[in-house]
Amino acid sequence: MIYGGKESLRNVFAASVEHAFIMKLGIADIEIVNYMTDMLVRFVKIDAVFNVKDISGRTLYEIADMIVSAEHTNRDNRHVIHNHIGDFTLFWVGLYPNKLKKMRPISKDYLLDYSVNGSKSYQIASTKDDSSKSQILHRISENFKLCSVGLQIASRDWI
User: Fold this and answer.
1) How far is residue 95 from each of residues 69, 87, 99, 136, 159, measured CA to CA in Å?
2) pLDDT per position as a tens digit, 18-34
3) Residue 100 to residues 45, 96, 106, 107, 144: CA-CA distances in angstroms?
4) What is the pTM of this model?
5) 1, part of any domain
6) For the CA atoms of the chain, what is the radius of gyration?
7) Domain range for residue 56?
């Protein structure tokens, strides 16, 4: 199937995510559904998946390194990095759980639980302010495992 650009791709992701979250899981939180859809569209570009850098500008590929980087930056950047860690872990746990198990034995992340760290990172990111985005991140943190199942269900349509 050929899709006609970013908007068409967003429509495909939106339909799958809406069906999985609302119809299959009963999560009628349209803000979470939209957040998941936007994350998937953003992560189509590999540069967005791996956009956290250390102080020397080196791209970080493991959440262990991202967590260290977050702790060595200012408050605003810390929230941004933790938001990304939440997205990064949810993306991997939701879309590629089997691949994640195979690649982690050779990394620093081997001893880390992606679901626990993702939920915790969303919780930290949600404390930035009282904006609607912070409230969404808080709800995702509280429902991280359910959101990962929703992404697994949604991905069956296109992976």
Assistant:
1) 25, 12, 9, 20, 8
2) 999 999 999 999 999 99
3) 19, 6, 11, 11, 17
4) 0.90
5) no
6) 15
7) 6-155
The span from the CA of 88 to the CA of 82, in Å, is 10
pLDDT digits (tens, 9 = 90+) for 41-85: 999 999 999 999 998 899 999 999 999 999 999 988 999 999 999
Tokens standing for residue 86: 């939440």
Is residue 55 in some structural domain?
A: yes
CA 17 to CA 50: how far, in whole Å? 23
Contact 140, 32 (CB under 8 A): yes
Three-state DSSP at 71 gives: helix
What ranges in 4-143 are assigned the alpha helix state H?
Answer: 6-18, 30-42, 46-49, 63-71, 75-95, 97-103, 114-125, 132-142
Q: Count up the domains in the chain and report the number.
A: 1
